[in-house]
Amino acid sequence: MARLLLRSLLCGVAFAPALCAAENLRVLVVLSDNSIPYQAFYKTFGQQLPPSIQAAVLEHPEEFNAATQQANLIVAVGMKATELIAAKTTIPLLGAMVPRNAYEDLLARKKHTNRISAIYLNQPWDRQLDFLLAALPERRRIGVLYSPDTRIDLVRLRQDIAGRGGLLITQPVRSAAELFHSLEEVVADCNVLLAVPDSMVYSSSNIRNILLTSYRHSIPLVGLSQAYVNAGALTAIFSSPEQLAEQTRETVISFARTAQLPEPQYPATFTVAVNQQVARSLGIELRTPEAIRKQMAQEKEEGK
Q: Which pLDDT belongs to residue 24?
């Protein structure tokens, strides 16, 4: 009886939404737009939610109104939604499918950072390198193009690659005008090109020409998504909207129990995609996705 009374008193104070979340959590999922990836995310997120968690969706983040759309927790899907919602409310906010650099830029401008967290879109570097060397073990001269916005720790990345028996070859891209000069420089010296999340370098208007240039030099491109592989990249490691939605759902269920957001986290699960047609054209013997994953797991176990 005393515990019940204490809980009732706590639910009357300013932080009532978080403290009462374990019994009845109201989640508002705000999508950056209503395109297929975001719809796939919400469909998967809503599956297998406990009855105590009520989820609603908003497909246009600019329509969010904190006064009329009550929630204990907001899940913003994509960077557009995350930025818009972060500017409008202090309700606990979980950004999903967001690039790490963009999220950290937002966090630097945001007050009450204990009420915001994220599930990143991009893969951790260790996983990227494990994947690259499992997929292409003979190609150890790894080329990377980067702009000032990429903010790669080149010293650490160079050391990590060297520790795996590889060599990092980099070229900066300071402006869009010098992109293809830098690309020609890097593909002349590497034997695999690793795409990184960089909207200036790997924009939708550039990717086709990057693929054509690397292909002309017989240099395979390791992409960032299934779309890259479909367009002509040799292979890619990424997390699908469905995989990120499952991780987000588990994070929300944990929030319902603890009223605490976790630290920002990388994707827990991932997908490997390959383009065997490109592999044959380049004369590369490429393993299946299953074999690549098995090799990654084996090397990780041996490295313990």
A: 87
Rounded CA-CA distance 11/304 in Å is 47
What angle, rounded to 10 degrees, do the helices at 36-45 and 241-258 form?
A: 40
Domain ranges of the chain: 2-121+241-258, 125-238+270-303
Q: Report the alpha-carbon distance of residue 250 to residue 227 in Å, rounded.
A: 27
Q: Model pTM?
A: 0.87
Q: Which one-letter amino acid corresponds to residue 231?
A: A
Architecture of domain 125-238+270-303: 3-Layer(aba) Sandwich (3.40)
Mean pLDDT (whole number) for 117-124: 96
Q: Does domain 2-121+241-258 have CATH number 3.40.50.2300?
A: yes
Per-residue model confidence as pLDDT tens digits over 50-73: 999 999 999 999 999 877 788 999
Is the CB of residue 296 less than 8 Å from the CB of residue 150?
A: no
Determine the pLDDT at residue 303. 66
Q: CA-based angle 290:264:105, to the nearest 5?
A: 115
What's the pLDDT tens digit per position in 24-50?
899 999 999 999 999 999 999 999 999
Mapped to the 3 state alphabet, what secondary structure does 212-279 carry?
HHHHHCCCCEEECCHHHHHHCCCEEEECCHHHHHHHHHHHHHHHHHHCCCCCCECCCCCEEEECHHHH
